[in-house]
Amino acid sequence: MNIVTADPKGVDAGPHFMDGDHAIAEGALAAGCRFFAGYPITPSTETAERFAERAPEVGALFIQMEDEIASIAALIGGAWGGQKVMTVTSGPGFSLMMENIGLAVMTETPMVIANVQRGGPSTGLPTLTAQQDMLQVRFGSHGDYNIIALSPDSPQECFDLTIEAFNLSEFYRVPVFIMTDETVGHMHEKVVIPPADQIKVVERNLYKGPKEDFRPYGFDSQGGHPMTRAGDGYRFHITGLTHNERGYPVMTPEQNQIVLTHLIEKINGNADKIIRLEEDQVEGAEVVVLSYGITSRIAVRAVQEARKKGLKVGSLRLITVWPFCEQRIRDLSQKVKAIVVPEINYGQMVREVERSAAGRCQVVSVNHCGGAVHDPLVILKAIEEACR
Amino acid sequence: MSTTEIRFSGFGGQGIIRCALITGKALSLYDNKFATMTQSFGPEARGSACSAQVVVSDERVLYPYITRPGVLMALSQEAYDKYWGELPDGGILITDEDLVKMGSDHPNLAVRRVPATRFAESLGNRLFTNLVALGFFTAVTGVATADAMKKALPGLVPGRFLKINIKAFEKGYEHGVQCMAGSAP
Amino acid sequence: MNDNTEIKNPLAGVLRTERMPHIWCPGCGIGSVVTCFAEATKRSNIDPDKLAVVSGIGCSGRMAGYVNFDSIHSTHGRAIPVATGLKLANPKLKVVVFSGDGDLTGIGGNHFIHAARRNMDLVVICVNNFTYGMTGGQVTPTTPSSANASTTPYGNYEYPFSLPFLADAAGATYVARWTSLHSRNITQSIEEALQRRGFSFIEVITPCTTLYLRRNRLGDGVDTLQYYQNNAVIKHGIDTRETAIGFQGQIVVGKFVDRPKPDYLESATRCNVKFIGDDYQLYGKTEPEKQAEEEAKKAASGGESAV
Ligand SMILES: Cc1ncc(C[n+]2csc(CCOP(=O)(O)OP(=O)(O)O)c2C)c(N)n1
Ligand code: SF4
Ligand SMILES: [Mg+2]
Question: How far is CA A338 from the centre of its chain?
Fold first, then answer.
């Protein structure tokens, strides 16, 4: 991995009072992103606006495309043109992006896509919070594949995780998603941007070897395979068709097996290196509350109340939502009575928890439609019932 | 742990969101507190009413929204009518004394009134109303220090109006100090 | 690649010979456009390392897989936005979009008009065979009224686009149309387009022998060339409103539009220079790069400036 310190040009170091949307833009600039294509949609637009405002002084390019389909298509071109690229959107735009998310996965194109979730389906609740796209991000494009998704719980984490998203994306050559929500996106808090020399950035691994040995892909189920960019003389070809390591179409079941195994296993096989969790008093707990994003902050409040009542409750926060922490849940399910899963949706990530727990412990979904965060008392009640 | 929830409210164009941003920034950057600021984006944010919330604490703020406001600043009649009822006993109610006609004396609340619009006009422009009110708020609640609030202004008010905004803040602040000393005219 | 093929095949070097044979049917017009393109790239003296080709999906879209340039075979209709990203991320590139009529003006129509509106520096070549070839001969936005297609089995009752008019109206700064019979003109138009900046659109009317011709009982490829011979009229500079094509009717060809206008990046740069000043530079060197350069300079000057 080619790790360098950030280019100070993109780093607005110091303490700020800013919202999550703005922090995502700052994280992208700090990570070295210099190309942003997007289309306005509430509640994500502030990220695009911030990037557009900062672009000239940083020497970055912002373009407002004609729609989200064009935005993500432009990212694929932009990445193979040699830039680190990103876009931001919300529900309806996310749906429009699905086809080319598949192309990015298939062509192993690094990019970062932030989804500031709002209530759906359809136009739904444009200005109100939700966590309803958690399965769409993993399964929304057709075909079998894998991606990485992170879920920040604060503006500070929006900044930090956007940098991490770029780093993971460059190394694994896969779209990485920031799955945040209207609450975190619009909420202002202190965000400390460290000086450039304290920010670690993964640079693109550009191929430098002889032309005849150049391969845009290496199907070895690992990250780190070098990429190239247009204009460097390697005359790459990439396609959404099933292809060989040279990038040329090979449309056979055998080749599909080779490509898919690589695409899926480069993430699954490295899940323990990718996954980040935050755990608090999980060891020895009777009940564990599993949550992510804004809901984890609400959940902690419920957990604190439960502890005051003498209940043995742990909390587990998914920082990485995809790949899912299967192994950890499998282990936990043998030790705890129940796992309580509050989400601002009708039960999405809880399916993964159920699958991983496989009946070894109780799994309680505290689901809740979009538009507002949970009332902590509802989570508390679920904890109390689970402890009984 | 001490947590205070503050609601700033009024009509659009009064600089209500700005008040919340300045307060949140002052607290979290210069007063060593944790502060989370949110504003209404929903359909209710359309029209004339406008509201923004700051939750401040010595520890990390978990729940970002208002559950039990300790302070309500209402700079319009509509805002007062809509929100005063959520104040619990002992809550602080701050209003503009010319713009808001109170329906009762609110014996259970700490009512603090300031002629913010009038003061702002005396400084040359109604646009400074929010800063007068904010200075007053700072003095009567003690939630943030005046120093931190003033430090938070650059970047949140236009540079060429910084001085006059500080003046407006100070005017409101002095009035608040006098008011607390029981000597307000 | 061995030298023999280079002598035998004028396209060697331009085509990925290891990928031959191609998938196109005998008599299909796509091949002739590819030949013209290859010829134009050679004549234009453009650095082949700085040329990139993007296409969407369709028979014509397969072109990206056969040319020996950096190439992206993207998704149906999305070649233009992918090309836009490529060009903007790497402004030194000349980016060519090779596309079918359905790809470019059906599913991708919105991208087409917006790239033209922005005067994005792209060369867009449309192989217009009046049909969705790859999926088996369905109607497209350019199928002439009354023509038969598999989804208009009793004749097309919709009104078709005239692409030169569409491109012109949307803001394209270079617009030409030829038939696959006009190889010299196609080559020349592509060469001109490669040498200018801005949104250049070249439409080539071509036969889809397997589907369009057969379904409409129009004979084979040779009959079509005969039809072009008899019905194509060269009218350079004509008002693009006069370029509609009726079923087996007259085909107005020529160079219709060629007007200079700042392209997207020139306009963006101009705006940013106004705001930032003359040292504005898109994707300028990073700070570490600059420092390294300065140190290298110092070292070269013998360290005298160390004091
Ligand atoms: C989103 C999507 N819809 C439909 C298709 C199926 N499809 C593939 S090629 C094509 C038509 C291509 O027609 P055209 O662009 O005219 O190219 P031609 O084959 O005629 O050269 C269609 C509809 C697809 N690949 N993707
Ligand atoms: S189907 Fe038509 S367009 Fe496609 S290759 Fe055959 S002749 Fe050409
Ligand atoms: Mg076609």
Answer: 27
Question: How far, in Å, from the CA of C101 to the mean position of ligand 3?
Answer: 5
User: Which of A176, A202, A228 delimits the end of a domain?
Assistant: A202
Domain boundaries, position A167 = 3-202
B34 neighbourhood in chain A, CB within 8 Å = 189-190
CA distance C60 to C67: 12
Query: Is the full-model pTM beyond 0.90?
Result: yes
Produce one character per residue of C154-187: b if its CB has 16 or more CB atoms within 10 Å, e if not: eebeeebbbbbbbbbebbbbbbbbbbbbbbebbb
Q: Where are the domains of chain C?
A: 17-261, 265-306
Chain B: residue nearest A376 by CA? B63
Give the Cα separation of B28 and B36 in Å (integer): 8
pLDDT higher than 80, residue A104: yes
Q: How far apart are CA C25 and CA C221, in angstroms?
A: 11
Let me know if chains B and C touch, i.e. at least 3 Cβ pairs under 8 angstroms.
no
**Tally of domains within chain A:** 2
Domain ranges of chain B: 3-181
Residue A18 lies in a domain: yes
C32 lines ligand 2 (CB under 6 A): no
Chain A residues whose C-beta is within 8 A of a chain B C-beta are 15-17, 42-43, 125, 127-128, 182-183, 186-190, 294, 297-298, 300-301, 373, 376
pLDDT band (50, 70, 90) for residue C286? low
Distance CA B20, CA C302 (A): 58
Give me the pLDDT at residue C4, please. 41
Report which protein residue has its CA nearest ligand 1's atom 2.
Answer: C76
Give me the DSSP letters along A271-289.
Answer: HHHH--EEEES-TT-SEEE
Q: Is B133 in contact with B141 (CB distance < 8 Å)?
A: no
Question: At the fourth CATH level, which superfamily is domain C17-261?
Answer: Thiamin diphosphate (ThDP)-binding fold, Pyr/PP domains (3.40.50.970)
The residue whose CA has the least distance to atom 2 of ligand 2 is: C208
CB pairs < 8 Å spanning A and B? 59
* φ/ψ (deg, to 5) at A97: -80, -10
Q: Determine the residue of C23, C32, C34, C59 to mutate for testing ligand 2's pocket, defined as the one with the most ligand atoms within 8 A of the Cβ atom.
A: C59
Largest CA distance in chain C: 87
- Token readout for A210 is 């002889």
Answer yes or no: do A189 and B35 touch at CB < 8 A. yes
Q: What is the band of C295 on the pLDDT scale with cuts at 50, 70, 90?
A: confident
CATH for B3-181 is 3.40.920.10
Contact A107, A240 (CB under 8 A): yes
C131 lines ligand 2 (CB under 6 A): no
Burial of residue C236 (number of CB atoms within 10 Å: 0-12, 13-18, 19+)? exposed
Q: What is the DSSP string of C229-253?
A: HHHEEE-TT--GGG----TT--EEE
| Prediction ipTM score | 0.95
Q: Are residues A7 and A153 both part of a single domain?
A: yes
Q: Provide the shortest C-alpha distance from residue C154 to chain A (in Å).
A: 33
Does ligand 2 lie within 6 Å of residue C193's CB atom?
no
Q: Which two tokens stand for residue B141?
A: 């609640």
Nearest by CB to A188, from B37, B41, B65: name it: B37
Find the CATH number of the domain harbouring A363: 3.40.50.920
Please compute Rg for chain C using Cα positions: 22
- Point out the domain boundary residue: A178, A202, A226: A202
Ligand 1 pocket, CB under 6 A: C 57-60, 76, 100-103, 127, 129, 131-135, 140
| pLDDT at residue C86, as a whole number | 98
Residue C28, ligand 2, Cβ within 6 A: yes
Ligand 2 atom with minimal separation from the C210 CA:
7
For chain A, the average pLDDT equals: 97
